[in-house]
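ok here's the first one, seq then struct tokens
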Amino acid sequence: MPESPSMKRRKLHTSKDVRVEDIPTSEIPKSIPGNPSSSTAVPDFLRETAHRRRTLATLTKEVSPPPLRRATPASSRATPASIGATALSSATTPGSSSDAQIVDLTTSPPNEASKAPQAPAQPSSPNTHTPFRLTHISTLPTNHTITLRSLLTPPTTSCTLTTVWCFNYIHSLPFLVSSLPSDTNLSTLRIHLVHGSWRIEDANRIRLEEERLEHPYPGNVRLVPAYMPEPFGTHHSKMLFLFSVEEGGEEMARVVIHTANMIPFDWENMTQGVWDSGWLPLLSPGTEEFSIGAEFKSEILRYLKAYGSSRTGELTAELVKFSFSQIRAAFIGSVPGKYKLSECHFGWPGLERILRNTHIQPTSTRGKVICQVSSIATLAMGSKDSWLTPIFLNALSVTAPSKPLPLKPEFSIIFPTPDEIRASINGYRSGGAVHLKAVTPANLKQIDYMRPYLCRWSGSLAPPSSQTDPAPLRLGGRARAAPHIKTFIRYNEPTCKTISWALLTSANLSNQAWGSAPTTKGSRDRGLVIPGLGDEKEVRICSYEAGVIVFPGLFEEEGKEVVMKPLFHGDGLSVEEGKIHVGIRVPYDLPLAKYKSGEMPWSPGRSYAEVDCLGQSYLV
């Protein structure tokens, strides 16, 4: 439920309350491209913190951290022993040694420069780039990462950016504009911000309107409130639709689906993921699309049309003009509403629909599905689990019919622990974007139920007792960048050598995001679907979400086998011995480190007296 004004608000402390004058100037965009004299009136950090406090009350929503207190004596700061410095240095310093056997795959040869973003490979050579890329973090190796500015940059110097559609949960218009290329012409650029603050009196909507009026050309900025019929739902999708035109009049479009809020905090030191269509050309006159990309186009248009023509009609009318034939991916979204189960293209039923057409090679061993999220909601437990295992994990087990059927996979859920949040670049401040309730008996019962699934974010920072797999560590290179990325990956083997499918999405582990258990229309029945009565069942979805799934079949070429593998550095794999190798950038370490006995997941609702790597404690 939305937080009432009477509820106690949390404050961020160092040695005193944070004031505007206390915020480092690095938090504030200095100027807006095309208007050097302009400046933002309120620091983005305060806007971000205030908005997280005001608008997020359910577990699927993101809230600001409780009070941080700086330790008085210097001796009480986090020590190497307290944060596992040996493992920490192994994760951040190439070539360092530790007790664990570590294969360092996070660096590239010294002469390999950080690369500018490129369009995904054309259908003739789909193995060149990994479908998912991580965002740039200045204090970590930057090889093959991507920045917001590079995503917003037109394809050529003679090309002009004409329109930006930004779908997100939290927006900062000054930050978005400050991320545009410096030569952007703001007098002609149209910006549409799609958000979930539909009430006119909503503080976030008022703030966005103030930012619009502060823009040098306020008439070029349009605020688009999404319809929010569900009280526990959020507009959580994170997408960019960009349109550009060449000097000669050639138009192009770009679709970006990612996991970051449009605020500086999310794009700086948090682990985030990006899928990028590359720049799409116009359809040739009189032609129709019959391709993988055409199906992607159909599904993303289905999603966008659900907002209503008054909100996104202009966008859908533009997108239909472009060819999606170079895309090798499937779109999966969520839109609030109640849907007949047999016809639902959103949420877990939509994902299950895709997986029923995804062939998985049967093996003699069980595969593994790894769910990696930044938020776990209060799930429908009661006297028994009525959603997580019977509905959601069951949907993730679905495959195309085959003989023999693949063995049912094992499941793991990656969620950071308090010591991983403490050791992160931002310390406890990172915990403001990572959510799980661990306060009430019901919360603790849910954690106990999920404990067999729970694994740490970073194997390289795990205590030896958590590492039960003797295989060498493959480093994701993001141990100290707390996760806001969400990935769901099915591996063919327990050793995670090859991949059946991989999903990057804004959706966390919640029935608000993925949809409820099927119920009989008009009833409160929470039972499972009865065979033969699927048409009588409906699924309720509360939030807007957007994601992209890829699997080997999307990259097939005549006469060549496709192998999808986890990738821990670099930007793709090559064709070898007649096989197409598709690399999926994995942000976490493998093999996984299970929670040790009694270990708890991070929860922003609990106090932590132990100081983080910045010398701060965390008190609720």
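and now the second one, same deal
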Amino acid sequence: MILRRLALTVPILLGTSTIVFLILRLVPGDPAASILGSNATEEAIIRVRAELGLDQPLWQQFVSWLGGVLRGDFGRDYITNQAITEELAARLPITIELAGIAFLLALATAIPLGVVGAVRNGGWADRVVRAVAVLSIAVPDFVFGILGILSFALALSLVPSSGYTPIEDGLLENLRSLAIPAIALSLGLGGVLARVTRSAMLDVLGSDYVRFAKASGFGTGAIVFRYALRNASIPIVTVIGLQVGYILGGTVVVEQLFSLPGLGQLIVEAMLARNYPVLQACILVFVVAFIFANLITDLLYAVLNPRLRKVGAA
């Protein structure tokens, strides 16, 4: 099963790269004109287009770019003339750290809340869990981010309102600079996970073997954590794998809002400047991350349900 998924990765990446390349070329505007500004002459624009290779046929531009990618060379930034690989190396760790912290926060809060909601089904705790989950899903990340800035940064001065502190300057300051962005990014994912966890746990807790375990004298804690949660974990893992795209998309908004110099902010800057090579490289990195996350999801399926390993082997 995993080998089949790996084999599908190549055509997915090739197809995505082709679609992104063509869509960017269809967007109105000229990168050369954006670089030179509104006062640029036609001769200067033609010269810059030739320097950037934009005067070549589309198929030739694509083949040239794809050949560079296969060699690990994403080209050079139209604006700074810096190697895009160096830009990715500088910005990608910030996005990974932000997304990683957001994921951990979502998992650490949503799964326990979902379990509590299922165990206390119909009670006040369940109603609170459902209300919090719906609210966190309904309200956009940037709204939570703005509220966090107004309350924790400006009113209480507990964390900085924007900017990023590298971990080399101190772990505590680094975490303070990412606290509100990570919380804002985690809430939507947390709401989805809490609802899915509650629903999956309710299905398992209503099964025959759980009723038999209760009749045999097993306590609630043993039933929930030794049996029910494991059997309810497959839909939870499925949602986690699918929500990687949500987290990656959320980093674009959150990094822009909090002035975090990560890959999300680089995407916005590249879009505004029509910086084709940078935008293509960033999107390709996001696609690879999404594919990798779903491969991990498939591996977790096999661990959680041994029957899937037999099916995959067959």
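notes on #2: Residues 170 and 266 are 24 Å apart (CA to CA). The two ends are 9 Å apart (CA to CA).
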